[in-house]
Amino acid sequence: MKVATKRSTSRIKRLRNYVLKLNIYGDESDSTLIDQLLSTRIFLILLFILLILIIVYIILSVQTHSVTIQSPSESTFTQLSQQYPSTLSCPCSHTSVRHDRFLSLNPQYHPICTSLLINQSFISLLSSANVSEYPSEDYRKMATSHFQILALLCRTVRQMIDDSFSEFLLQHYTTSEVVSNETFNVQMNHLVEQLKTTNIANIKYTRDFLWLNVFYNAIYSGLKTNFYVKGSDGHLVIELLIALHKLQSQS
């Protein structure tokens, strides 16, 4: 046992002396022996640290393996998108789909546009009365025309909405990769809200155009109810300006 211990101690001493005297520089170097030994030790320490860093990086580095699933179902895609949100990629077999394949639009109109007040039978009933007997201030004299205009406006709005929706549904939704339900719903809601805003603006434009055309062009109705003629042109101008002032105050 003592002999084995002495041999081990001797080997350690020889290894220690070898390391202390290790010199990677040749005899032809201009530096002193102490500088050569110091440089050798610094080099070995840095080399050792570099090897440790490389080993740690290899151990801790995450290796990515690509797995391809042919024609995954919606539930499979949802599950994988939750597990691998940053690395999942699912190309579309069809990059463009028409809106009417997955979207349905059901506009809600004002109740008056679906009531009996714009029904032709109701309007005919109003027009059957002899309105010439009523004074110009009596609403019964202008009721038929009012409900006819109301029915026309409802039909015009319906036609505008139907045309706009038909054009929108014929457009295509384009994407190169499958998107999540949340992203898809956000995109569709944005498009629908944009469509609603555009239709409302167009309807308001049509309404304003009709009102301005009637008042600024001084169109005189056949029932003589939009303004009164009182004897002279001066009074006619005054009454028309009053009507225009009322229109501007309401807008």
Can you describe this structure?
By secondary structure, this protein is mainly alpha-helical. It has a domain at 93-217. Helix content is 60%, strand content 2%. It contains 7 helices and 2 strands, in the order αααβααβαα. It has helices at residues 2-20, 33-60, 74-83, 120-127, 139-169, 181-216, 233-250; strands at residues 96-98, 172-174. Strands 1-2 form a two-stranded antiparallel sheet. Helix 4 (120-127) packs antiparallel against helix 5. The longest helix has 36 residues, at 181-216. The protein is rod-shaped.
What does this entry show, briefly?
The chain crosses the membrane at residues 42-60. The chain has 251 residues and is mainly α. The chain is built from 7 helices and 2 strands.
Helix content: 55-70%
Overall geometry: rod-shaped
Derived structural class: mainly alpha
- Biggest sheet, in brief? 2 strands, antiparallel
Strand content: under 5%
Mean of residue pLDDT? 78
Distance between the termini: 112 Å
Tell me the total number of β-strands. Answer: 2
Number of helices: 7
Q: What is the chain-wise order of helices and strands?
A: HHHEHHEHH
Low-confidence stretches are 234-249
